[in-house]
Amino acid sequence: MELPGYKPNTKPHSRQVREAAKLIAAARKPVLYVGGGVIRGEATEQLRELAELTGIPVVTTLMARGAFPDSHRQNLGMPGMHGTVAAVAALQRSDLLIALGTRFDDRVTGKLDSFAPEAKVIHADIDPAEIGKNRHADVPIVGDVKAVITELIAMLRHHHIPGTIEMADWWAYLNGVRKTYPLSYGPQSDGSLSPEYVIEKLGEIAGPDAVFVAGVGQHQMWAAQFIRYEKPRSWLNSGGLGTMGFAIPAAMGAKIALPGTEVWAIDGDGCFQMTNQELATCAVEGIPVKVALINNGNLGMVRQWQSLFYAERYSQTDLATHSHRIPDFVKLAEALGCVGLRCEREEDVVDVINQARAINDCPVVIDFIVGADAQVWPMVAAGTSNDEIQAARGIRPLFDDITEGHA
Question: Name one GO biological process term (predicted).
Answer without folding.
Answer: isoleucine biosynthetic process
